[in-house]
């Protein structure tokens, strides 16, 4: 019972901390994890799925184990438990930085400075900025805001609700590993397979909750639901397609189409084909929708834990 209340209070404090502080410019815990994962990769890398799976198990398992040890150490003190959950939540969510980066690119586009927008785009996503004009950059930003609302906020909250601090840290570890080695480059096609598949599994519930809350909070529920149900399955990602389709319908815009990653061109299906082309102003609308979805997600997961606490059935590991 106490663990459920501690999670609810700590998660709320952590999300508020992210709103007020954002990510630190130096010494971010996720960056420290990334350096550790790179060190493990230097030792284990082979062009083989099995070695990649070991890399995933060592790094993600280490993050979960660290969280479990921290929970055990602070179990006797309620203040320590709430504080640990708050610190972990703040460390793993990134909604404020996501919004800042998106708005910075939107501001450059609004000022007509496409080159500055191109320089900043890699801070947000892996698209090739030189292959994009102003409209393409705006679309890339909206798509990234949609996907990262799930990856950087909602997914972490869902796993925190399920497994407490170990769930928060484990989800961020899996998501970070996918970004590092889960792409289909020659070096990681086999080595990163396990990280990519585990990220698909871990991201599944958060993506669906994100899409559902975008339907609720976007102001066009019928359009968002229609786009989600009809178009999400066309996307190559089982999770990104869900949130991008829902955001597209909620915002009344078209997403998808031609994409370029490091010189590799992909043709993605169009999501919400009835919508209009993305405009610069839609970046701000996407950021605001992302913020509403994030706070609604906190309400859902914290409320679920509090209901469980009243029934005397805890979820926490």
Reported for the largest beta sheet, the result is: 2 strands, antiparallel
Give, in spatial order, the strands making up the sheet with the most strands: 1-2
Morphology: globular
Strand content: under 5%
User: Alpha-carbon distance between the termini?
Assistant: 12 Å
Helix content class: over 70%
Mean pLDDT equals: 93
Q: What is the chain-wise order of helices and strands?
A: HHHHHHHHHHEEH
Q: Which residues form runs of ≥5 with pLDDT under 50?
A: none
Tally of contiguous helical segments:
11
Structural class per helix/strand content?
mainly alpha
Number of strands: 2
Task: Describe how the helices and strands are arranged.
Elements: H1 2-21, H2 29-44, H3 49-73, H4 78-92, H5 95-110, H6 114-120, H7 134-181, H8 193-217, H9 221-231, H10 240-251, E1 258-261, E2 264-267, H11 281-311
Antiparallel strand pairs: 1-2
Q: Could you list some keywords that capture this structure?
A:
3% strand, 317 residues, two-stranded antiparallel ribbon, mainly alpha, 11 helices
Characterize the structure shown.
The radius of gyration is 19 Å and the shape is globular. 50% of the residues are buried. The protein has helices spanning 2-21, 29-44, 49-73, 78-92, 95-110, 114-120, 134-181, 193-217, 221-231, 240-251, 281-311; strands at 258-261, 264-267. It has 317 residues and is mostly helical. The protein starts with a helix and ends in a 6-residue tail after the last helix. α1 packs antiparallel against α11 and α9 (221-231) packs antiparallel against α10 (240-251). 71% of the residues lie in helices and 3% in strands.
């Amino acid at each position: 019972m106490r663990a459920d209340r501690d999670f609810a209070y700590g998660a709320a404090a952590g999300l508020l901390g992210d709103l007020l502080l954002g990510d630190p410019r130096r010494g971010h815990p996720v960056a420290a994890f990334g350096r550790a994962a790179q060190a493990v990769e230097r030792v284990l890398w082979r062009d083989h799925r099995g070695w990649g799976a070991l890399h995933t198990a060592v790094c993600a398992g280490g993050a979960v184990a660290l969280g479990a040890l921290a929970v055990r150490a602070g179990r006797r003190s309620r203040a320590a438990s709430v504080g640990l959950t708050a610190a972990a939540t703040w460390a793993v969510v990134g909604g404020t930085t996501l919004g800042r980066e998106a708005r910075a690119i939107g501001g450059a586009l609004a000022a007509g400075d496409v080159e500055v927008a191109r320089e900043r785009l890699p801070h947000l996503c892996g698209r090739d900025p030189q292959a994009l004009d102003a409209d393409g950059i705006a679309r890339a930003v909206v798509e990234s805001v949609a996907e990262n609302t799930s990856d950087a906020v909602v997914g972490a909250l869902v796993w925190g609700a399920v497994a407490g601090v170990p769930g928060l840290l484990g989800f961020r570890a899996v998501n970070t590993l996918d970004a590092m080695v889960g792409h289909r480059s020659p070096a990681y096609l086999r080595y990163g397979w396990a990280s990519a598949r585990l990220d698909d599994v871990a991201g599944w519930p958060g993506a669906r909750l994100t899409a559902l809350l975008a339907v609720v909070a976007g102001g066009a529920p019928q359009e968002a639901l229609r786009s989600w149900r009809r178009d999400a399955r066309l996307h190559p990602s089982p999770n990104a397609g869900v949130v991008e389709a829902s955001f597209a319908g909620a915002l009344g815009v078209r997403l998808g189409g031609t994409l370029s990653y490091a010189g590799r061109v992909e043709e993605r299906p169009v999501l919400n084909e009835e919508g209009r082309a993305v405009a610069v102003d839609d970046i701000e609308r996407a950021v605001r929708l992302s913020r509403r979805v994030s706070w609604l997600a906190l309400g859902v997961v914290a409320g679920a834990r509090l209901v469980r606490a009243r029934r005397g059935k805890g979820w926490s590991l």
